[in-house]
Every structure is written in structure tokens, then in C-alpha cells.
Design brief:
Blueprint: H1 3-6, E1 10-19, E2 26-33, H2 38-48, H3 59-74, E3 78-82, E4 92-95, E5 99-103, H4 105-108, E6 113-118, E7 124-128, H5 132-153, E8 167-168, H6 182-189, H7 213-220, E9 239-241, E10 256-258
Antiparallel strand pairs: 1-2, 1-7, 2-3, 3-4, 5-6, 5-8, 6-7, 9-10
């Protein structure tokens, strides 16, 4: 059984309530498809947008074809949100390669609700189904979309158990380069640390280095010395001694100061 026979191009379509706070819920026509071939792209254009590529396309047709072809080249499903089944003037395309995770009614704590979380604006799309039956049908449709996603991008890697809406998309992260580790890079390129040779012995070069400029300038500063011809201040004491050379012939003596 080929993939086209197992999974049709258009997986599910119908009306859903789009909730965006603080705006009131708006009714949208949503199409979940998984184009892969040229025939699939032709089917989506003709059935959803009522465009016949063989008769030429305008700017709107080229815009829609670009998103559909992008999903086909990546091999990922595509979610198309329209204002109504006939109002296709301003469609919103949600590429599954931009989806990070999907939350079901259990995680949202709201019956018949599911949310799609993307890494591009507006980041979150929260939809509400009209009934539990409709919710289960969308649940199965997203389960098939996730199976197609894993078959085309990860070689059939099985998803986790539980609700198909409760899943995460990390298929692009497998091709991302390894995370850089600073500690591993340091350990890989650094050499062993040499032993510590800095001691406190007098032969150390730091011990024998000359004093700094500030200390040498301080040592060079000396107290000013008064000249000999200037008398000492009065606070300094004087001592007088009598020397034989200073005696006069008549026996008198003269005081000779000795500092």
C-alpha cells in the first residue's frame, strides 16, 4: 500500500471555533492536508481555493501555491485556516515545521479544545470543537498527520503513547549541531598547570626587585638643615666650656660657645 492510498492528501476539514484572548471566538474553516506530489498540490488548490493552475494563476494563487509547495518539499503536513469555506481571500497557513507542540483537552482543562503552539507569530492557535465526536475526529486526523510527519522526516519513528494531540515536534533538532561546552573545550585545549615556583626565599626575584618609585622618593626626602650662619632657634640649649687656648695674658677667660 502506497502512502497516497494509506493517507489521503486532505486529512480533515471542517468548522472550528478559533479562540484568541481577549477577542471573542470566531468561526473558521480549517483544512488539514499533507501534500507531497504535484497531484496533491493541484488537489489542494482546486478543492480548497477553487484555483485551476492550468488556466493561469494570479498573485493570490501564487501565494497559496508557495505555501503548499513548501510543505510538499519539506514533507510536512499543512494546516490552512480560512474565514469560511468560500471566503479564501486571506488564508492562514500553519506549517508543521513551525509547530513545537500540541495540547489536548486534558492539558487545557477544557473539553473539546486543543491548542497548537508554534515558534512564529501568533505563536498559539486554540480551537474548540462543536461536539465530542468532532473532537475525536480531529484527534484522529492529527494523529495521522503526526504519523506522516514521522514517516517522512524521521523514518517512521514512533510517537509516545496517549492522545495524538499531546505531542511535541523535535525532528529539526536532530540535525542541529552539538551544543558547545566551554568546560570541555578548556579541558581539551589546556595544558597541565606547571608547579608553583613562587616562594618566599630571599633569592626570589620579587624579593630582590627594587623598591617602588613611591618608596624611593619618600626615602630621598630629608629634613631641611639650617645654614651655619643662621642662629639656632631659642628652644635649643647652649653649652659653654672654658678652653686653655681661650685664656688671656691677665688670667681672664672668654666664653666660647659649643653647641
Amino acid at each position: 500500500m502506497t502512502e497516497r492510498q494509506q493517507y489521503p492528501c486532505i486529512l480533515k476539514s471542517g468548522h472550528l471555533q478559533l479562540k484568541r484572548s481577549p477577542l471573542a471566538p470566531s468561526k473558521k474553516y480549517v483544512v488539514l492536508c499533507a501534500p507531497l506530489t504535484v497531484e496533491d498540490m493541484h488537489l489542494v488548490l482546486s478543492s480548497v481555493f477553487k484555483i485551476n493552475p492550468t488556466k493561469g494563476m494570479d498573485a493570490k494563487g501564487m501565494f497559496c501555491l508557495g505555501h503548499i509547495a513548501c510543505a510538499a518539499v519539506k514533507g510536512t503536513p499543512l494546516l490552512i485556516v480560512l474565514d469560511s469555506k468560500t471566503a479564501t481571500a486571506s488564508p492562514t497557513f500553519v506549517q508543521f515545521s513551525d509547530i513545537q507542540s500540541i495540547s489536548d483537552e486534558t492539558q487545557l482543562r477544557s473539553a473539546c479544545n486543543f491548542a497548537i503552539h508554534c515558534n512564529v507569530k501568533p505563536y498559539d492557535y486554540r480551537f474548540s470543537c462543536s461536539s465530542s465526536t468532532d473532537y475525536q475526529e480531529w484527534n484522529l486526523a492529527f494523529g495521522r498527520a503526526m504519523q506522516i510527519l514521522t514517516d517522512r522526516t524521521m523514518g517512521g519513528m514512533a510517537d509516545g503513547e496517549g492522545s495524538p494531540l499531546n505531542g511535541s515536534f523535535h525532528f529539526e533538532q536532530a540535525q542541529a549541531p552539538a551544543r558547545y561546552s566551554y568546560e570541555e573545550d578548556i579541558n581539551r585545549h589546556s595544558s597541565p598547570v606547571p608547579p608553583n615556583n613562587f616562594g618566599t626565599s630571599p633569592s626570589n626575584e620579587w624579593a630582590s626587585s627594587p623598591p617602588s618609585v613611591a618608596s624611593s622618593s619618600t626615602q630621598q626626602r630629608k629634613a631641611k638643615v639650617l645654614p651655619d650662619y643662621i642662629a639656632p632657634p631659642p628652644t635649643m640649649s647652649r653649652t659653654y666650656t672654658l678652653t686653655p687656648s681661650a685664656q688671656s695674658p691677665d688670667g681672664s677667660s672668654s666664653d666660647s660657645p659649643r653647641a
